[in-house]
Amino acid sequence: MEHHKIGYMLGMICGFVAGLLIIFVLSRLIRKMGGKFGTFKCGKEGAYDERQLQARGKAYKVGFFSLILYVTVASILGDMCNIPLLMSFGGLWIGVCIAIFVFATVCIWEDAYMSLQENAKGINMMFLFVGVLNLLTGIVNVREGIPFLDNGRISYRYTNLIVAVLFLALILMFDLKLLYNKKQEDDEE
């Protein structure tokens, strides 16, 4: 296991807290602007219709059970099979990303991902921004020669790369569904 100096750990904690603070400030600004941010409105009553709410509930359930299954497999591999590959911060983030991907995929294919006030361009731009930003950070780690495995476990330094794969896969899934919907509309005409 990698041991770090107290200054390094405090820096990591401060970075995490700074990220949360930025999210808090942005959410406050969005609320002050009347809930408008780019192409969608936040927190508006009736943003999803009843069918979308049911589909989202199903997606939450499937995503949750995907995460439980992943953690169970990771625990069995780590404790019973003595393969600790997934029992690390980076390894467990793979499970979180899988659960988010499953949730978003179910929502996308059930036409329940976007609320009534959102549009696809805003979602694509946000996913692309987050995906590319994390990809660049991940590439820096790869170029620095940081090993993927640290004492047989996935290194936490590859979390950005894992998140980048998630968001880029979500863009692909989202755009495939948009193309499918467009083809369906064209076929009906």
Shape summary: globular
The total domain count is 2
Q: Quick check: average pLDDT?
A: 84
The helix content is: over 70%
| Low-confidence region ranges | 35-43
**Oligomeric nature of the chains:** single chain
- H/E topology pattern: HEEHHHEEH
Brief overview, please?
This protein has 189 residues and is mainly alpha-helical.
Describe the structure in your own words:
This protein is mostly helical and 189 residues long. It has two domains: 1-32; 44-188, no CATH class. The chain contains five helices and four strands, in the order H-E-E-H-H-H-E-E-H. The protein has helices spanning 6-32, 50-80, 89-109, 120-143, 159-188, and strands spanning 36-37, 40-41, 149-150, 153-154. Helix 2 runs antiparallel to helix 3 (89-109) and helix 4 (120-143) runs antiparallel to helix 5 (159-188). The protein is globular.
Topology summary:
Blueprint: H1 6-32, E1 36-37, E2 40-41, H2 50-80, H3 89-109, H4 120-143, E3 149-150, E4 153-154, H5 159-188
Antiparallel strand pairs: 1-2, 3-4
Note the main attributes of this structure.
mainly alpha, 2 domains, 189 residues
